[in-house]
């Protein structure tokens, strides 16, 4: 009897003919199972349009934030440096014009006459400079006492300085700068005391006199108000034979004059210019 064919047996595929049972023929690529990688897939109901809009919105926010940050960097908005607190004080190129002389005049002192026409001979003398980190102002005055005779030698000076610190806060070092006078290991000793009621803080430095035939005094008043510092220094020396020399003020009297002058001088510097 002729051999019957098995209907379930796989038939050989002749070369060059299409494959069977769902397999592709050799050399023929299989159809893709999904969209190529990276191709956006549309969501039901047009969700792809909403997603696209949201992405554009996020991109706009990021771009705006970048511009804003760039502006802050350019203008110093991210700077950690503190802004200078000048407490309302302003620069003047003539500190002598704003220095109150009344307390010294009331103590019978007067400004010596200028010895010449040159600026170096002027009395009082002033100077000032506006720099990137500091504005500095100075005033130097030479005094003489009323009634002093030519047989008496005397030298009395008032030296004032005012500084506007524009980049560095002087607060941390201010007190120590004056307290350091007490730490000096020299033949001259000083007494330092806090002075209330002037600026944010103030200190009075008094040299301790050791007696002798001459009368002299050296007193410093330092004031800090915000980032403004002010110093007023009194230095006097007098020597004469007999009673020709006028009586010199005590260190306490000089301190009172300096404090009174400083309050009025700082009030004048505080005015808006």
Tell me about this structure:
The chain is α+β, with helices and mostly antiparallel strands. It has helices at residues 47-75, 95-98, 102-106, 171-179, 251-270; strands spanning 109-111, 125-130, 134-145, 153-165, 190-194, 201-207, 215-225, 228-239. Strands 1, 2, 3, 4, 5, 6, 7 and 8 form an eight-stranded antiparallel beta sheet that branches. Strand 2 and strand 3 (134-145) form a beta hairpin. The longest helix has 29 residues, at 47-75. The radius of gyration is 44 Å and the shape is globular. Mean pLDDT is 78; it is low at 15-23.
One letter per element, helices H and strands E, the order comes to HHHEEEEHEEEEH
Q: Which outline best applies?
A: globular
Q: Helical element count? A: 5
The count of β-strands is: 8
Radius of gyration from the alpha-carbon trace, in angstroms: 44 Å
Largest sheet: 8 strands, antiparallel
Strand content: 25-35%
Mean pLDDT: 78
Helical content stands at: 10-25%
Q: Residue ranges: pLDDT <50 for 5 or more in a row?
A: 15-23
């Amino acid at each position: 009897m002729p051999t019957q064919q098995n209907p379930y047996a796989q038939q050989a595929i002749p070369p060059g003919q299409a494959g069977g049972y769902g397999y592709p023929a050799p050399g023929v690529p299989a159809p893709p199972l999904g969209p190529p990688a990276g191709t956006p897939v549309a969501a039901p109901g047009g969700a792809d349009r909403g997603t696209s809009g949201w992405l554009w919105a996020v991109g706009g926010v990021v771009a705006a934030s970048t511009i804003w940050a760039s502006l802050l960097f350019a203008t110093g908005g991210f700077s950690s440096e503190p802004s200078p607190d000048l407490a309302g004080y302003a620069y003047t190129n003539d500190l002598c014009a704003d220095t109150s002389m009344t307390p010294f005049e009331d103590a019978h002192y007067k400004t010596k006459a200028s010895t010449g026409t040159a600026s170096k001979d002027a009395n009082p003398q002033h100077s000032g400079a506006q720099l990137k980190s500091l504005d500095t102002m100075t005033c130097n005055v030479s005094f003489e006492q009323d009634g002093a005779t030519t047989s008496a030698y005397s030298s009395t000076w008032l030296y004032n300085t005012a500084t506007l610190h524009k980049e560095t806060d002087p607060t941390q070092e201010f007190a120590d700068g004056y307290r350091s006078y007490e730490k000096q290991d020299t033949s001259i000793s000083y007494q330092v005391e806090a002075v209330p009621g002037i600026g944010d803080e103030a200190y009075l430095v008094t040299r301790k006199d050791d007696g002798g035939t001459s009368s002299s005094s050296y007193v410093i008043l330092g004031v800090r108000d915000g980032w403004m510092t002010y110093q007023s220094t009194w230095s006097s020396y007098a020597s004469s034979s007999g009673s020709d020399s006028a009586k010199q003020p005590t260190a306490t009297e000089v301190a009172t004059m300096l404090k009174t002058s400083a309050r009025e001088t700082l009030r004048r510097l505080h005015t808006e210019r």
